[in-house]
Amino acid sequence: MGNTALLVIDAQVGIIEGPKYGPVYEKERLLESMKKVIDEAREKEVPIIFILDTDVAEPDSMEYQVHPHIAPLKDDTILTKRATDAFHHTNLHEYLHTLEVNHLVIMGCKTEYCVDTTCRKATTLDYDVTLVADGHSTTDNSVLSAKDIIAHHNCNLHRLENIDYFILVRNSDENIFKHKHLDYK
Q1: One pLDDT digit (tens) per residue for the chain, 185 residues
Q2: Per-position DSSP letters for 28-88, written without gaps between them
Q3: Domain map (residue ranges) of the chain
Q4: Which of 8, 38, 89, 107 has the fewest CB neighbours in a 10 Å radius?
């Protein structure tokens, strides 16, 4: 499993619970799916990287912290970002390179912003991506419900490719840490 890492994007209290950015759609289901994936990653010794958005709240506030239901452990990595793209002006790419990672399992919040942008960017940086279908969420906007946004992204991102690297959308009950992309190359 040495070539896979788990990215948990913006799973912060202020986004999942609100009040400013949330609560996200089906937050209890989301937290259970995320916990299951994180527990499996720990069991399989897959590196876990939590990405925190510095715009969510002040760093010393509860809203800024990773949701306590999925709180990082001492061996997990925590990186911060300011943009929707977790790679932009961060050392994420360099860190993954030191781990020789070429497959990312991604989940988090919000679907149409940071999750989508990071998934797409990862393929242009030579990573295959598994987006956890039931491991990301968002809120309603003025055009679409959160449920529709999630379904739309699961549909559109599945099989999205950039030359040699692509995204597969898979449910958390599948063997998501298996680098299934290699079956198609």
Answers
A1: 459 999 999 999 999 999 888 899 999 999 999 999 999 999 999 999 999 999 999 999 999 999 999 999 999 999 999 999 999 999 999 999 999 999 999 999 999 999 999 999 999 999 999 999 999 999 999 999 999 999 999 999 999 888 899 999 999 999 999 999 988 88
A2: HHHHHHHHHHHHHHHHTT--EEEEEETTSS-TTSTTTSBPGGGPPPTTSEEEEESSSSTTT
A3: 4-184
A4: 89
Distance CA 52, CA 77 (A): 11
Domain 4-184 fold is Rossmann fold (3.40.50)
Contact yes or no for 77/50 (Cβ under 8 A): yes
In this prediction the pTM is 0.97
Q: Which long-range contacts (CB under 8 A, 24 or more apart) does 76-80 make?
A: 76/48, 76/49, 76/50, 77/47, 77/48, 77/49, 77/50, 78/49, 78/50, 78/52, 79/49, 79/50, 79/51, 79/52, 80/51, 80/52, 80/53, 80/54
- Residue 54 has phi, psi (to 5 degrees) of -70, -15
**What residue has token string 């925590």?**
78
Beta-sheet pairing, 128-137 with 165-170: parallel
> Rounded to whole angstroms, how far apart are CA atoms 33 and 29?
6
